[in-house]
Amino acid sequence: MILVLAGTQDGRQLAACLAAGGYQVMVSVISDYGRSLAELPGIGVHTGQLTLAGMEEFIATRRIKAIVDASHPYAANVSANAMSACETGGIDYIRYERSEVSVPEYRQLHLVKDAAEAAKIAAGLGKNIFLTTGSRTLKIFKTEPLLADCRLIARVLPQPEVITECIELGFKPGDIVAIQGPFSHALNAALFREYGTEVVITKNSGTIGGADTKISAAMELGLKLVVIGRPAIEYKNLCRTSDEVMTRLLAGTAAK
């Protein structure tokens, strides 16, 4: 059995590819929404966050032969837990990660290491700040004292729990853009204009994560752009394509 940590679209596609290749596959997702997307023929689904202890138990009880970590590029804790659990369980760990978008030279571009730095940098760039970083970093921006006088617009998934979190953090309904991607260049530009955006904050989550169209739209409008870099993690067995993952599995001990 192969456990695929698949919190992303390309992760789910990879799981389907492995199942089609004859592997027994179990997909791990966080939410019921993720489960609804991952329920594909021949693939089992585990819903809920796996802690390190939970992952170790899961490996032992489900007889997992390998973990393919296709979690989001910024889910550093998930990857760290997976690598540790694989080492403890004596099984293969394979990291599948989408490529970054090549960020063009741009005078208004600011590259930062994390959301906390992004919040501080953005405070000196403008008053209307459009957040496209997902819901998990919203608290960092909302609690940054330097942003107290700024208008923060949060673009998030249209899920009840996410909307509730936004409201509890103090976002006004008019500052919550609840919409499901992917977003085209034109739609990004239209939203940035509509909200009077001065600063766009995003992550380099790759083309499939829409980083390219967010960056290009911000550049077209001449907006300040803050891009959060990916966590510096030394992955074992890093793969960029499904073919590379299959090759790693065949070379390892993961049986079909």
From TrEMBL:
Database matches in PROSITE patterns: COBK_CBIJ (PS51014)
Pfam families: CbiJ
This protein's pathway: Cofactor biosynthesis; adenosylcobalamin biosynthesis
Organism for this UniProt entry: Sporomusa sphaeroides DSM 2875
Protein's UniProt name: Precorrin-6A reductase
Entry's EC annotation: 1.3.1.54
GO MF terms, alphabetically ordered: precorrin-6A reductase activity
InterPro entries referenced in this protein's UniProt entry, alphabetically: Precorrin-6x_reduct (IPR003723)
RNA-binding found in the keyword field: no
